[in-house]
């Protein structure tokens, strides 16, 4: 499978810092992105105990695997879309921000050296960054070459906090990259062209930037996403390829849909979105207008048509139950500003 340029899901995850000098860590953390969840330890034994008691895992994958429903067995794509639904339900899970995806550890400690500590994390699905002094640089490089750590950073760099911040987000993406690859594999589905189409990827990133998106979750294999802003505001990014749109046009014609419906689909002025198989059947039975949305044209390796929507009533989203990164992470970071002993 080719590396996906767009991930199935993403949300802020916790980075753990382990370094004996509490003042050094606190200074670094204060310079990081305020929406990055962090936890600080100056004792590696306590950090390891915390990780073992809160072992990071891909629990979301088990939900995707186990989810199935006979109601959606008639059409494969709706069955797969239904199996993707646990992804977006993460927006109601406050603990999603507690998942540890990154550990940043200093090389020398009184208890154990950083390399030995990272070896103990070999079976944890987390990424490891090591902070290195000039005197132990060769050993750290060797640990990187052996796959013990995922990245190393020299502590004597003047822009250290910026480099750490960028490295954390880079490896967080890798963390979710691996989850995304597994999800596609588990669903026995090869990714559609749009996920590796530069035009699609550029548009997706632009939408996320313009709407201050902190979380996103794939809701269908056409490439549509539920996006969550840092304040918890939802946005739907819906997209259909030209080939998919032609299939819907044929369905609309076969079911004797209103002429205006057929014309709007043929012109690419509107695209349909169905959150489940029941929605699709309602459209076929004469309710097409409810599921059509104003569309824009995107020309990439294929032709696409997309909508950006702030309100999608029939999706039945529980807005009051969404946990946002702005409130939860900032509050938790204030509480964890003291070094864990």
Describe this structure in words.
The chain has 341 residues and is α/β, with parallel strands linked by helices. It has two domains: 10-57 and 99-189, Rossmann fold (3-Layer(aba) Sandwich), CATH 3.40.50.2300; 70-89 and 192-324, no CATH class. Helices cover 40% and strands 19% of the residues. The chain has twelve helices and 13 strands. The strands form three sheets. The chain has a six-stranded antiparallel β-sheet. Strand 4, helix 5 and strand 5 form a beta-alpha-beta unit. Helix 3 (59-66) runs antiparallel to helix 4 (76-88) and helix 9 runs antiparallel to helix 10 (259-266). Mean pLDDT is 83; it is low at 68-76.
Name the average pLDDT: 83
Structural class call reads alpha/beta
Please provide the ordered H/E string of secondary-structure elements: EEHEHHHEHEHEHHEEEHHEHEEEH
Radius of gyration: 23 Å
Total number of helical segments?
12
**Which strand order do you get reading across the main beta sheet?**
1-7-8-9-13-12
How many β-strands, per DSSP? 13
Short characterization:
The protein is an alpha/beta fold and 341 residues long.
